[in-house]
Design brief:
Strand order of the largest sheet of chain A: 5-6-7-3-8-9
Structural class of chain A: alpha/beta
Strand content of chain A: 15-25%
Structural class of chain B: mainly alpha
Shape of chain A: globular
Radius of gyration of chain A: 18 Å
Number of strands of chain B: 0
CATH class of chain B: Mainly Alpha
Number of domains of chain B: 1
CATH topology of chain A: Rossmann fold
Number of helices of chain A: 7
CATH superfamily of chain A: P-loop containing nucleotide triphosphate hydrolases
Oligomer: heterodimer
Order of helices and strands of chain A: EEEHEEHHHEHEHEEH
Number of helices of chain B: 10
CATH architecture of chain A: 3-Layer(aba) Sandwich
CATH architecture of chain B: Orthogonal Bundle
Low-confidence stretches of chain B: none
Largest interface: A-B, 34 and 27 residues
Number of strands of chain A: 9
Helix content of chain A: 25-40%
CATH topology of chain B: ABC transporter involved in vitamin B12 uptake, BtuC
Chain lengths: 250, 270
Amino acid sequence: MPNVAVEVEGVSVYFDSKCVLEDINLKVLENDFLGIIGPNGGGKTTLLKVIAGLLKPSKGSVRVYGKPPDKSGKLIGYVPQMNQPDLAFPATVWDVVLTGRLSRSNLIKPYSEADKKAALDALKVMELEGLKDEPIGNLSGGQRQRVFIARALAAEPKILLLDEPTLSVDRRLDTKFWEYLNDLKSRMTIIVVTHDISALSKYVDKIACLNRRLYYNESKQITREMWMEVYQCPVDIIAHGLPHRVLEEH
Amino acid sequence: MLELLQYEFIRNAIFAALLASIACGIVGVYVVVNRIVFLSDGISHAAFGGIGLGYFLGLNPLYVAVAFSIAVAVGVSASSKKLGAREDTAIGVIWALGMAIGIIFIKLTPGYVPDLFSYLFGNILTVPKSDLIVMLVLDLILIITVALLFKELLAISFDRDFAQTLRVPVNLLYNVLLILIALTVVMLIRIVGVILVMALLTIPAAVSEIFTKRLIHMMLGAAALSLLFTLLGLWLSYLTNLPSGATIVLLASLVFFSTLLYSRCVKRVS
């Protein structure tokens, strides 16, 4: 039985009186590659923020390897949604990836050799060594997204959380984007929130659907009932004959 | 030109320009990349309350303004977080409140009312030696703080959420940044006055940003530009017999718009 990486129990989140997440229960095992889909405003980003420790749930608890997320140190590598990054920000790829090495303990100290090595390794994994000294404003959407993943990897996390990583990726130019994630999946647990259902069906092992409530049966299949609950309407996804079937036979 | 240097007030003005430019270069960059120009302007106007209070209490107005503007800087960020007020609304209120407090205290101060005009519009030619020492100490505080926290301040300026997932104390660091801004604003009030502070805090950094790609280079560029603006502006104001603060700001603004136009043309060509 593999370890439990993330355990979400009875989590509800209210913004003022509006319920954004309701009674979420989710168990993610070590080395799972979990995709979370759902409509806009369904709480996907909120759930990731709760797991990352950026947001305290109004009710319920989150455990990351048995500890609360704000005490779990560097277990989590967070790749936030950056739909409007500040392209004029004066920093190079290297500057940005190094910030993945920050922690409470190296406050006011310069980056160590070990920090630099970890950041360089992360750049290599994402095949970004050649862009090391490039200002981040000069990169394509896909390259920038890889920089943000490299930054998260620099912290040497055990769990990678990605929020809509392909939103700014030009699919014609960055066909390899999901391959990078696929290569990481043997090394760590990955939770990815996305709209990209075709990529999900090809790469992830398990899929959860989220629309205030979470529908998850620890498998890759979305039942028609889950789909109806989440999107509130029948949506036709062409699934017939695909080798990677997401919807059940119907 | 050189014969001007024999006057002590001219020498003091040059030192003041240099010391203020160091602060502008460092802190202006953070103001621009964090998009907290409005907050910084609010702090500078609120500092006027500290100046009035200083006169009323018979203390050096600059010292009181330092304490006052730090309290305001931290107060705005706390009140918008804890009381749920929109930050820009809270800034608007504190901006006006600070000015009002200043005016009332100065009215209440018995006897001779000092030259308020110089605090509103600044006068680099009247900076006394004692203020130069205060500015030097403030510069040292700025340089040491930023040198120690450079990587953290870069991280929270670029992506605060991400830094928080690494358990970096982002709120504490943000407050440190606000305090640095408050210190710089008070330093600049002497030179360009409450009303014109923002020009020196934003224009050198914004112009420097166009030509640089790393934070540290942007700071060096901004400091150099700030020095250029203040000294050249001072000289122009001497030639034209116009107020020094306003001349400095006019010059800086001209450079700002020309650079924007220039970079636009360069982009269009390439």
